Amino acid sequence: MNLFFKNITLILVLITPVVLTSQANNKINKYRTIISMEDAELKERLYSLKYSDPNLAISLCLKSLDEFIPNGPSTTTLFLYSTLGELYMKKELPVLALSYLEDAMYEYNLLKHNADNYFINTQTPQQPWLVINIGNIFFNQGQFDKALERYRIAEEYFNELDSLIPKVRGLSTTYNNIALYYIEIEQYSKSLEYILMSLELRLKYNFNPSDISHSYKSLSELYYIWNMPLKAEKYLLLTDSINKDINQYRSSKYKGYDDIVFSLAVNYVGNCYQYKGQYLVRNKKYKEAIESYSIAKEYYADFAFQKISLQNKIALAYYYDEDYQNCLKTIDECISMSKEKNLKNEIEIALELKIKVMNKLGLKEGMDEVIDKVLESKDYSYSVQISQLLSGLESKNEILIKKREIEEEKSSKFIILLFSIIAILILAFVVAYLISRKIYMDKQMVIANQKERIAKSDLEHKKRELAAVSTNIVQENEQMTSILKDIKYYVSLIKSEKDKNIFSPLLNKLNRLLNDKRKDDNYSDQFSAAYPGYLEYLTRTYPELTTADLKLCTFLRMNLNTKETADIMGLSVRSVESRRYRLRKKLGLSKKDDLVNYLISLKHTT
């Protein structure tokens, strides 16, 4: 995938000079687009579609750009470029996302230096919201230090603004993002400091109740990650109280607020219950986690993507709880819901979990069909990814052509555009070839991984049989030892020596049976089947080990405690401890080395 992104980056590097040349030479300062009521409705619609239907939002952005680009730079084209960047970031296409955000930044600079001033606020060197979004791209790619650097720059720019509302909203969002950075590096106290800074601003100015709800949600998330469930529950309830308040007084107290405010308030409560479920899963309270996830799902009623993703989390909780029937049922529901929304990634996750469940249940029949579906889904995902990338490149190419057509009215530099298009097409074909090659390699890897999973499943079965054998040996030895002790006790109560001697043959016979059972080789056979080559490796590496030493090694490799080992070997606990001490010396271990961990970690070959 790294090679893939390098190729796409190369394309963007090649086309960027053409874009810059086209825009720099275009004398569009005299054009000015007045933001109408229709433009405001477009922005509101796009904001809503970002959460419900990103694909439709992308189409609407590209169509709107076709209409607005001929009019020259405007805050609307700036908004459209920025929205495209956010949408491609959601679709996990960071190169395209970064490209559109850079276009938005260039549009901002054109507007900033325009003779007609578009901005009421102080004109910062870079648009701070765009800087935050660029930071978010780095954050999603795991480049947290680069993300923090962008957030710090955004903080500086927001502090320079004159207008209070964008300044407060910008700073509070920036502080929340910085808090997420500190959560990632597990500096929770520092994260708390920034969330509280954000909350303080929002409480002081209270422009939007859902913003305050967002801060409470962030605190709930932090405390669940921090393993402080009581504090997390407190902020969950505060988040819910805001949701109930603004939805109850929607037509009176909060009349005039955008619909998205009410939707987000509901969504944030669902987020809190999802965080609670994740906390419960980490603490192996799977039934309570499923309960919490189910509550979250009710709040996600209008957020299909989050609801489907949560369904996979519920299935995973059932899997951890070993409730495989409900797990399969939930997986099938998730697959059905994902097909309706064409969410191939969620289908892949569900199918891969289904394979694990079928392995647990020993359902070999039908597994090949499920594996084929996973491969088919991966093929489709890669083809969609290629399609989206090429479509994105094509869209950028169309935008470039549109701008170039405007420039051509004033200059005759068509040859630059022609070479740019040819370069894009050639590189696009190169990218398509590289991706198709990667698809083939990934398919081979999936097949190899599945074979490895089946082999591991067989090995796990043998290990479970071995565990059962060792448990049975311990239990039977304990029972026979207990019976022998009881008989000896009752014989000791007999006063006549003659009568006591009558039981001597029986006691001797029981002792022989117990000793013979301890010498049984069945356990060794089972161990060699579960860990092939292990004993041979020990014998070859440490030739001074005796048969008794090797047998002790197998019990320790099975992680049996000293008492269980003593019961199987027919020795006292002290004797086993002495043998362990001598074994450590033969293996050349220091006092700091753990004997059991060493035997478990040995890398032996068959």
Structure summarized in a few sentences:
This protein is mostly helical.
Descriptive terms for the model:
single chain, 606 residues, mainly alpha, 80% helix, elongated, disordered N terminus
Strand and helix map with partners:
Blueprint: H1 2-24, H2 37-52, H3 54-68, H4 75-90, H5 94-112, H6 128-140, H7 144-159, H8 164-184, H9 188-205, H10 209-225, H11 229-248, H12 259-282, H13 286-299, H14 304-320, H15 324-341, H16 344-361, H17 367-408, H18 414-492, H19 497-502, H20 504-518, H21 522-530, H22 534-541, H23 547-557, H24 562-569, H25 573-587, H26 595-601
Helix pairs in contact: 1-17, 1-18, 2-3, 2-4, 3-4, 4-5, 4-6, 5-6, 6-7, 6-8, 7-8, 8-9, 9-10, 10-11, 10-12, 11-12, 12-13, 13-14, 14-15, 14-16, 15-16, 16-17, 17-18, 18-20, 18-21, 18-24, 24-25
Major sheet details: none
CA gyration radius, whole angstroms: 34 Å
Shape: elongated
Q: What's the assembly state of these chains?
A: single chain
Flag low-confidence runs.
Answer: 1-36
Quantity of strands, as a count:
0
Beta-strand share of residues = under 5%
- The count of helical stretches stands at 26
The end-to-end distance, rounded to whole angstroms, is 35 Å
Order of helices and strands: HHHHHHHHHHHHHHHHHHHHHHHHHH
Q: Give the averaged pLDDT, no decimals.
A: 80
Helix content: over 70%
Class of secondary structure makeup: mainly alpha
